[in-house]
Structure formats: C-alpha cells, structure tokens
Design goal:
By secondary structure, the chain is an alpha+beta fold. The chain is built from five helices and ten strands. The radius of gyration is 24 Å and the shape is elongated.
Length: 287
C-alpha cells in the first residue's frame, strides 16, 4: 500500500507541473481525461464476517474518460484488487468448524456512464469546483481463489471442491456514486464508492454443499473439500450445506482518484493550422 500511495503522489505532482506549463498554451478543448486511483476493496460472500464490512484490502486502477455533454461522460477502467476471507476469523462456532479460507488477486475491466448532479460547461475550464456524480455500467472480472494447506498455496478451481466446474471470469454490474473536486485547471481529485454485482457464487470457491469423497484418490483434494478434520471435527456428511447458493458473491470498492485533462491532439491528432489562427481560436474560447 505504501508504494501505491507514493505512485499516486507522483501522479498528482506531475499533473501540477504539466498543468502549470501547458494551460495557457493549449487552445484545443480537453474532453479526454486520464485517471489513476487507489483505495480499498470489501468482499461479500460465504467467507466474510457479518458486521465486519470494513475488513478491507487494497486496489489500484487506471482509467480513461470522455466528456460527452454538460452532465454525461463515458469511461473505461482497469482495476487490480485483492480480496480474502476466512472462517477462522468468524464468531460463529459452525463457521470455525467449517474452517474454509481463500485469497485472490483479481482484475476488473469495465465501461461506465457517469451523470453529474450539476450541469457544467462543455469546456474543461468551465467545470464546477465540486460536483457529485452517479455511475453505472457493465464489466468483466477475472478471479482465481487460492488457499494455503500445509505450507503450500493451491488454486482451488483445479480441485473442483464442490464438483462444479466454474469459469474464472464473470460479468459484473458496477454502480455507485462519487464527488469530484477541481484542484487545479487540469486536475481533479475524486472520492468514489461503488458496488459490483456479480453473476457467480464462486469468488471464494464456496457455494453449495459437501460432496462425497469416498472415491476421490487425491488426498489434497479431499482435504480442501472438507477442512473441518484439520481441527479434529468429523468429516461432513455429503449433501450438507457448505455455502449459500441462493446469494451471489460481490464486492465493494472505495477509491481516491486523480484525473488529468489530456491535450486534444494526444488522443486524435489535429490538423495543423497556422499559429496566428490558433491563437485567435484560443482567445475566442476564453471570451
């Protein structure tokens, strides 16, 4: 996390310097906005602990946004995030006897529509000092739940612990809200919170019921299916609940982001025009 915050600080510092140098020399409008952010992720599933909603893990994201109108924007983002959960941390004795756990380094890519509460001018310098916003969209997340057993880390999907072959990728629906703060002519700081609805119950490799292990010859797979015996509990009866298949897993993200307004010709090269014409356009834009 310390390294992540250092990179975030460097981005802000560079944005300050570039903005000071180029604001008065750039007459093209800036509707493309690059962002970098960091924050925390909270997982919701069979292995999180009720009431402990702030058992947070780190995330890091980068994004590109396009301003469409006085209120609407479109953006796409790529996010790395870490989630984990453990029965050992639960207060419920039944959870402790189940003794399951997981950890996962995941990636998310999405595209979202953003709606500002207050109207803003089309030009980047006409934006408000503070503007709350809502966002929603569609995306995909890649996940790979792992666990530690006898000093070795195993990828759980390979062992089909519930005799179910699930995909490592799932569609997600991100939605949430945030507040944008204008810090400098070309720089915003956003504070944002959102929830990801998923279409899988296997972010944590736990969903349905215990399976019969009598004919399974791999001792590691048997151990990962039912980890109660590690603590001295008798093996679970096949068909007894291992998870809750009636509720999909999900996760929430809280972020602080820095947004920088890119020169127009950085994304799409503009046709060169004479310098005098360019200056006249810039003076007209400021009027």
């Amino acid at each position: 996390m310390k390294r992540t915050f250092i990179l975030f600080f460097i981005f802000i510092t560079l944005s300050w310097s570039l903005g000071a140098q180029s604001f008065y020399n750039q007459y093209h409008d800036r509707r493309w906005i690059a962002s970098v952010g960091t924050g925390t992720t909270s997982y919701f599933g069979e292995l999180n602990n009720p009431g402990k909603y702030f058992d947070t893990k780190p995330n890091l994201n980068i994004g590109l946004k396009r301003k469409i109108s006085s209120r609407w924007s479109l953006r796409t983002e790529i996010t790395w995030y870490h989630i984990e959960g453990s029965d050992a941390k639960a207060n419920d004795e039944g959870r402790k006897a189940r003794n399951l756990s997981f950890k996962s380094n995941n990636f998310e890519i999405n595209i979202e529509a953003m709606w500002g509460v207050f109207k803003e001018g089309i030009r980047f310098y006409q934006r408000r000092a503070v503007n709350p916003y809502l966002f929603a969209g569609l995306g995909l997340t890649y996940f790979n739940p792992k666990t530690d057993y006898e000093g070795v880390t195993y990828s759980l999907i390979k062992f089909t612990t519930e005799d179910v072959k699930y995909s490592r990728a799932t569609i997600i629906i991100p939605a949430g809200f945030g507040v944008k703060f204008k810090i400098m002519p070309l720089l915003n700081i956003n504070i944002e919170a959102g929830y990801r609805t998923t279409f899988t119950d296997y972010l944590d490799d736990v969903s349905a019921e215990y399976i019969n292990t009598e004919n399974i010859t791999d001792p590691v797979r048997v151990a990962l299916i039912d980890r109660g015996p590690e603590l001295g509990f008798p093996p679970a009866e096949p068909g007894t609940p291992r998870g809750n298949p009636g509720a999909k897993d999900g996760y929430a993200i809280f972020n602080i982001k820095a947004e920088y307004y890119l020169p127009a010709d950085l994304i799409f090269k503009q046709k060169e025009s004479n310098q005098g014409s360019g200056k006249r356009k810039y003076r007209k834009m400021l009027q």
